[in-house]
Amino acid sequence: MAAAVVRDGSAILASAIRGQAQVHRPYGGVVPELASRDHARSVSEVVGQALEEAGVSLEQIDGVAVTAGPGLVGSLLVGLSFGKALAYRLGVPVVGVHHLEGHLASATLADPSLVAPFIGLVVSGGHTALYRVEEEVAPVLLGETRDDAVGEAFDKVAKLLGLDYPGGPALSRAAEHGDPGAVAFPRPMLDRPGFDFSYSGLKTAVALEVERRGVTLAEAEVADLAASFQVAAVAPLVAKARAALAQAGLDALAVVGGVAANRLLREQMGRAAAEDGFRAVFPPPGLCTDNAAMIAAAGTRLLAQGEAHGLDLNSFSRVPVGAAPWAPGASG
Ligand code: KG4
Ligand code: ZN
Fold it and tell me: Are 198 and 188 in contact (CB under 8 A)?
């Protein structure tokens, strides 16, 4: 659960996050019912915390932005209902934000000198996609994963290697002591044209390697497998982003979503940027993983464009970018 107070869509006055790792850790993954119950328990406290940190009273709030989808509907509904009630009570507009448009907004929030058009690479636990981001129209999808998301692959491989939950950060820490050349895992989609990704084959290759070794893995083996997986997972992200920039004739890239916190991805994309002469914007790690400041920033832009939604605003588990069913003019 997260709540933030943002001024003018660009200054973060407060950004409060209450993680749920402890709730889900015993199960090794997110349990939807527990997630929504925890949201319901914490929403009013987290919102209160953000207001207090910002030193802002409720009456000073000009609008409320809430994530409307995609995501787990039970959790989305908690934030949505709270946001709508708050907006109603304050007599201010409420606006529904697409989760990925929030992630893309985190880049301009972190670096206001980044202006569209630019290429956006979204890498999270649920998404792996390249967008062309435009000023006043919805982002255009260039390519996406055909199966697992890259963050999901990090999490699943971490679990295979017996690392702590959540897996992505634990895996990249373990990889720091390993040899990335230890095992030559496949680098999915690297040699294919187009901008699609695929991560389930890489995950399976790691699973087979773990199975082949049979015994309990030694710490050094875990480090080598983690490092070998990580270079294979990162390579297609760098290659496809470069190709998308070249094809679009653009020289600015935003890398957003939880996996954008990954150190190897930052290093390798930074090297590619220096070689090819483009600018790579990575928000600070706290703005990469899910947060409310990015939703407030995206919502401010929508409100400025005259978009506001009614109290019938609903949440949706699956929503394509640019075709949100809650947007004005959408049918159904
Ligand atoms: O954007 P996010 O917070 O939530 C979703 O919208 O999915 O992304 C979470 C994902 C998880 O899969 C997590 O393991 C991954 O981001 N992640 C990382 C790192 N930090 C978070 N993956 C690799 N390296 C990291 N340092
Ligand atoms: Zn996310």
Answer: yes
Whether 93 contacts 311, CB under 8 Å? no
* Whether residue 259 has its Cβ less than 6 Å from ligand 1: yes
For residue range 31-67, what is the model confidence (pLDDT) as tens digits? 999 999 999 999 999 999 999 999 999 999 999 999 9
Tell me the sheet residues that pair with 129: 122, 144
Distance, CA 167 to ligand 1 centroid (Å)? Answer: 8
User: Is 291 in a helix, a strand, or coil?
Assistant: coil
Model pTM greater than 0.90?
yes
Tell me the ligand closest to 123's alpha carbon: 1
User: Helix 200-213 to helix 150-160 angle, to the nearest 10 degrees?
Assistant: 10
CA distance from start to end of the chain:
28
Mutate to test the pocket of ligand 1, among 265, 289, 319 (most ligand atoms within 8 A of CB): 289
CB 91 within 8 A of CB 303: no
Tokens standing for 293?
């400041």
Please provide the average confidence, as pLDDT, over all residues in the chain: 95
Tokens of 56: 């802002």
Cα 216 to averaged position of ligand 2 atoms, centre (Å): 33
The residue whose two tokens read 């939880």 is 258
Counting residues of the chain whose pLDDT is more than 70, the rounded percentage is 99
Q: Is the CB of 126 under 6 A from ligand 1?
A: yes
